[in-house]
């Protein structure tokens, strides 16, 4: 019997060494934290894999004695001969980013790798800087710092988010049927120092992205752990102060992380009427790994903000010398908002071929805003101030299952999932008010219920250097509205289902060159009040788009990404929250060129730039009258960054936006601008000292601009012209940080 056992053991050992199999392992850093997207390559069999968010990888066709190469940009590459296939735990040592070590074909997502490089080289400390990390995304603030930014991307004036889908840790940021405007996206609840990853894509080519994914999507991922605790304090001009604290709660607890972060900001801004702006952010996160490397994440956050605003001012009053650029016609604008989030995420390897990722979330959101865009055009006695308000609860969940198999010699990765989002918005209000205290008239008042259920499937077929990825997405919507201004109670309801196919191709021409062709249909929903008013017609307008592009490393330390793209939008009806009316916008088409580069001049000096050239026009209107108001024609962003030069870091950054049509016939032009920012930091042991200058050359620039018809109290006739919010002048602030 003993001889049989020994013989069985010998046979099993021989089988393990002679026959290839799937081998499972984990890639971590020196703090035993999992590393995502690490490239694992079997130099013997030439099979490969990437590590998941849990750090886990499964590599096929591998046996004892094979040589594995494990690498990730920003970490030292390891080459290991397999002496065992049990409990594999590979530790990578962190080091400085070196672009010459980047191999395009080894990257799981080159876009995410580039954003990780940008975050590492030029860290962010404001929500504006977080958004500007997305190449080609321009932002503008026009309501005292508390209102969500106005967004521009690929020839779109996206307003506050109608055509770009934004999420944080799987929670949606876009607000459907918002009191101020469809897709309203307020990212101010995110503390910038907690952002770990920015995943983004342009166009509507991604099965996991649904509503608002026409121009693109942006997904932010917060840090799972802190390397060290930190407190920082900043002071600047215009009574500006910011303090941030990040505190590690479980430093030496195995397989568990927890930290809390807080942020407080106040400023009066450069305006003659102080903004009296303040914001408080609280954030907490707990992460636990099971012995099987399952990952459970709990996050909670609370954000509150209030502000006063000088509003948009007419150019004629500046030209007449009646007010300065930082003056006001009506300085009673302003508002307050808050958001509380709870989010639970679970990631699990079901088996060596199948993984699950799921999250469930709840958000409570409240919003109040006072604005006056037309002054005394509608009401020559009391003025045209409006009040927008809502109180909202959001419930939702997302799941995705990824399964990898082989069809003959063809590797197939199949990802499918379902999702749910349910919004309950009570007392959604638009009213005419006087001096933020007296309600003159209710224009809109009612309760909104909106439900979105989605399902998707995405397949990736790998044929050596060639990959084909067809996908299909299904979205079901139910819109319900109770109009409180009607004497008889009635629930108006509509339902709509839409199918969105996608088809993408990727070709790894060389290790340093990837070509791709992306295509797909996207959509964005319209406001529930529009849906029920129009009997359910034209409520989910489609987008049709395609990208032909490349990611190329012509030289070891230079990465160039480029794309030719086209996007067509169907007829859509847009709810104008400031007026409570419906405006048809007609069919539109956009095409253009995106070009970006990252160049590492030395070990510590980096150059980056991103440019977008766009032609955006209305389809149904005649030439010369078919401009799309405020659609950017050309944007350019870039800078030089220093990363750890004898303790110094910092950079010089610029952003350029050209002149663009402010109305349909280009008779009113929104002026372009170029603004340059500068910062420098010096790290001395655990203390970092720094200062930053916004608008280094103190140029006069208009942050947001609109062609608006308005009338002042002393005017007999209205005037249509540019109304704008002035951009920040020369602004100096200093910061001291302490790590422990």
UniProtKB/TrEMBL annotation:
It comes from the Bacteria. GO terms for cellular component: cell outer membrane. It is found in: Cell outer membrane. Keywords: Cell outer membrane, Membrane, Receptor, TonB box, Transmembrane, Transmembrane beta strand, Transport. Residues 109-216 form the TonB-dependent receptor plug domain. Its main location: membrane. It is a multi-pass membrane protein. Pfam families: CarbopepD_reg_2, Plug, TonB_dep_Rec_b-barrel. GO terms for molecular function: siderophore uptake transmembrane transporter activity. Residues 298-696 form the TonB-dependent receptor-like beta-barrel domain. GO terms for biological process: siderophore transmembrane transport. Belongs to the TonB-dependent receptor family. This is Outer membrane receptor protein involved in Fe transport. It comes from Winogradskyella pacifica. The lineage of its organism: Bacteria, Pseudomonadati, Bacteroidota, Flavobacteriia, Flavobacteriales.
